[in-house]
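On to our target:
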Amino acid sequence: MKNISYTQLLSRTMSLARLSIFSVTALLAMMLAACGSENDDFSVREGDIVYDGLGTVSRLVTHTKGNGFPIIIMGDGFSENDITNGTYSNALKKTVDALFASEPMASLREYCDVIGVNTVSEQSGITTEKRNTLFGTRLKSTSDVDIYGDSIKIQEYASKVLKNYGMSIRNSQVIVLLNSNQYAGVTLMPEPLTVRDSVPVGFALSYVPISCSYTGGRKMQKDYFEQVLQHEAIGHGIGKLHDEYYPKYDEPEEKYISVFTSCQRNGYYLNIHYDTSTENEFSEKYAILSKSNKTYNLLLGEHDMEPGSFGYELARSGNYTGEKLRWYQGGALYLTVGEKYTGTEYTGRTYYVIKKNFYRPTWESLMNSVITSTELSFNALSRYAIYARVMKVANGGKSDNLRSASLLEQFMEFDKQKSPSSDDVLAKGSGTEQKHSPIILSDDNPPALPLPKIIK
């Protein structure tokens, strides 16, 4: 080996230091160009942010239409061994399959880019305690469905990766997979911009365990990962939708109503309707509420979608008869129990009338129960919101107004499919038959996933 003087060694070391400080961006650019943006080492320092734990990066889905809707998948609680033994790669594949397993995302796949990142933690697994994992995620408790994590750090890492693909985090969907098998999931999204009726912008972050197992009541344990991922990342994250289930039976606070209506005016929560005035119809539909060892029969109201409400144009089009689009009482967490029914039409049991406030557009959907004996899908209003978001981002901001007649027409044309048994044209979500059997509300029901969290 040729001897090198201390001066020569110092000079070379300083040159390398200058190269690492001032040319890392150029080197990354050359590496990306040479590798086609695949399998790159993102363990780099930029300013004061150390991107430890970012390993190889792969483009799992590439758009073929528009400019692409960016979806980035990272993990937490996956050790180096979890990466090498295939645990994490299997989770990535499972996630991509789930993302495009139902409509409208199955038909929107050609507009999407999905980036998978090997994120390495020192410890394997996610528990209720904050462990030495890359993003510090933890479960609220062994029986709760909420999840906490370092959302700022996640955004920094996601932004770094997307930037190297020429994408922005601004309108992306970020998914963090937890190395856990607990039934849980939550989505964070920013406050909507105050642009009335505009298709909303803004990224979202969804936490989902890689195996959402649940055992309760008479149900056998099952992995509900696909349903939870779709509910959180597609429904809340991409569609900016609210929950259609109703675990609360008291009166919603005025502040809650105010925040809801403000968000809805600005493009969020398109799948829920707030109404305290329209007269309801009653039928044989009722809910059985078991609470504190007492049973209550709840008489549920419903009414047609009135002109001016979101969903009216879809309901009157005739394309969605199978989904029975109406406003059904219960949604946005609330099914408010009122006074005893004093009419004479319903006999044989004592009913309590549900107060008018929140309504959902179909009896069942993926934004309502994610655990059910029947296969669920997104209802027409939810599919419309998801479609509008993807098309706006992928097409560079076109079709901005949610009430635009042309956007509605585009969606309904997109949403058509041929019936497998005839030439009839059906909506893509009409595979979910709307059965109006009584709802059983009890402690055996699975816990409701947390409502979407609005962050500043």
Observations:
- Residues 56 and 161 are 10 Å apart (CA to CA).
- Residues 1-45, 418-423 have pLDDT under 50 and may be disordered.
- The first strand starts at residue 45 and ends at 46.
